[in-house]
Amino acid sequence: MSATVVEVEKVEKMKNKPEDDQLGFGKYFTDHMFVMEYCDETGWGNPRISPYEPITLDPAAVIFHYGQTVFEGLKAYRTNDERILLFRPDMNMKRMNKSCERLSMPPIDEAEVLDYLKQLISLEKDWVPSSEGTSLYIRPFIIATEPFLGLAPSKQYKLVIILSPVGSYYPQGIQPVDIKVEEQYTRAVRGGTGMAKTAGNYCATFNAQSTASKQGFSQVLWLDAIEKKYIEEVGTSNVFFKVNGEVITPELTGSILPGITRMSVIEMLRSWGIPVSERKISIDEVYEYHQEGALEEVFCTGTAAVISPVGAFEWRGTSININDKQIGDVSRRLYDTLTGIQTGKIADPFHWTTEVK
Ligand code: COI
Questions:
Q1: Whether 121 and 235 share a structural domain
Q2: Is pLDDT of 5 > 90?
Q3: Which atom in ligand 1 lies closest to the alpha carbon of residue 139?
């Protein structure tokens, strides 16, 4: 079912677009955004596209005090023949509703919001960059807007979609990154909100992340909260280990984000006949595999991070280099195939892409 065509208020003066080689990640925003509101009495309504502008909220809005919010991240890609493709956007809508459920927020109509998202992209088509490794990052989010300080779910919300032309998330692109295994802090615990895409999960990682950055690491690897032993995820992405020909990734236990790139990588690997197991894997085990010479590759997966090989880990003061800090064959094949499908350069046997007209 197609949603109605939303009302559009266009900007008077369009912004200058940045050069593709200046993009970085999440620094520039397009001319317009999508907005709709919810209140308990009437449900979701008033969908519209308006100029990209600041949002005015009551200082007592629930989002400011109790962090009731969810978000998503997906990308639009420009093909060589100037078509615009989205990668598995239905999965993002589905996950957004799962996050809403966890955060006691009202569900969205997935098909309808996806249709609105497509209308926004269609209006902002010229913002989709074309250089290798670039895309238009799409950030839908919902915030709790009711002015109320009592501890209860908000009765009012705002759903906003903003767009940002981006290059690669890491300045080094697909070159392997060094990762510090976090020993002091915890990202999430089973039964908490780790599986939801909500702001608190991310800001809880900032202090460990900034310490690691100062020490020269690109990211932090999070261990389970209880035994401080089992691998969970890297703040921006899920993580995979290739050991003796088999690819292992932590199983989804409720504290790990169910990544859409993670799911796609598992499907691709299985379609190539590479065994994949989703199971508990401890950091000791990884160091043992390395000692035995069995740890062949490690890579992270995410919408922003795409496929990002890991060059080294540091844990309890001991560093290990992986695959001589080179991009492994499986990581390379996954990167080429995934980005090839996303940008329409190669066939999409999985039917993952959707064109925006
Ligand atoms: C994404 O990959 O879309 C994310 O949301 C990660 C983000 C924290 C940069």
A1: no
A2: no
A3: 3
Ligand 1 atom closest to the CA of 137, numbered from 1? 3
Per-residue pLDDT reduced to its tens digit, 11-22? 999 999 999 999
Ligand 1 contact via 71 beta carbon (within 6 Å): no
Final residue before a domain boundary, out of 166, 200, 222: 166
Query: For residue 173, what are its two tokens?
Result: 């692109």
Residue 2 has pLDDT above 70, yes or no: no
Number of domains in the chain: 2
Identify the domain containing residue 127 by its residue range: 7-166
On average, the pLDDT of the chain sits at 96
Which tens digit of pLDDT belongs to each residue from 34-85? 999 999 999 999 999 999 999 999 999 999 999 999 999 999 999 999 999 9
Domain of residue 236, CATH code = 3.20.10.10
- Domain end call among 121, 143, 166: 166
* Ligand 1 pocket member 303 (CB < 6 A): yes
Q: What is the 3-state secondary structure (H, E, C) of 277-328?
A: EECCCEHHHHHHHHHHCCEEEEEEEECCCEEEEEEEEEECCEEEECHHHCCC
Atom of ligand 1 nearest to the CA of 236: 6
Structure tokens at 145: 């807007």
Q: Does 161 contact ligand 1 (Cβ within 6 A)?
A: no
Q: Ligand 1 centre and the CA of 200: distance in Å?
A: 13
Is the confidence at residue 1, as pLDDT, over 70? no
